[in-house]
Specification:
mainly alpha, 171 residues
């Protein structure tokens, strides 16, 4: 039987997952709003795009290598769900690569292709929303239902990158 403390730990992981997704949504909205204003210099646009791309990539890598791996060890029945989420991460990585490339090119010429960046970010926002909602339902429910997940030392040591967003360049 799980201790009350371990039950609280899993609930905290579920909450952290939702909070991390909320922060990523907020950051993406900020980048998209910056595109619409176009009062930012191109290097600022590039910096904001790249910072967002890095934060989302770190989050997904942490999930894939930490939380999801531990979850599947504890709940093998969730392997198909986790595989779908990891597949989504690959799709999102492709979009992030295109956003990075477009943001890098924004510095190379007098005109950034803001419309192309905007289209990529619009698509990313739609995919992220669907992905996050599915992940929060499936993984959040699993964490809430299995109070012992996330209480071991292996998970404790890896939860940071999976559930928190680090500022670019931060340890």
């Amino acid at each position: 039987m799980a201790s009350p403390n371990s039950s609280g730990r899993s609930a905290a992981l579920s909450l952290q997952l939702s909070q991390a997704h909320g922060e990523l949504r907020r950051r993406l909205a900020g980048v998209r709003a910056g595109l619409g204003r176009r009062t930012l210099p191109d290097d600022s646009l590039r910096t904001h795009c790249l910072a967002f791309c890095t934060a989302l990539t770190n989050h997904h890598q942490g999930e894939d290598q930490g939380l999801f791996a531990d979850l599947v060890r504890e709940r093998p029945d969730l392997a198909p769900t986790v595989a779908k989420l990891v597949e989504d991460h690959g799709l999102i990585t492709g979009i992030l690569t295109r956003v990075r490339d477009l943001a890098e090119r924004a510095l190379g010429g007098p005109e950034a292709d803001v419309d192309a960046i905007g289209r990529e970010l619009d698509g990313l926002a739609a995919i992220m929303e669907s992905h996050f909602a599915y992940e929060e339902r499936a993984i959040g429910a699993a964490l809430d239902a299995a109070p012992h997940i996330g209480t071991g030392a292996a998970v404790e040591g890896r939860r940071g990158p999976a559930l928190r967003l680090r500022k670019p360049g931060a340890p």
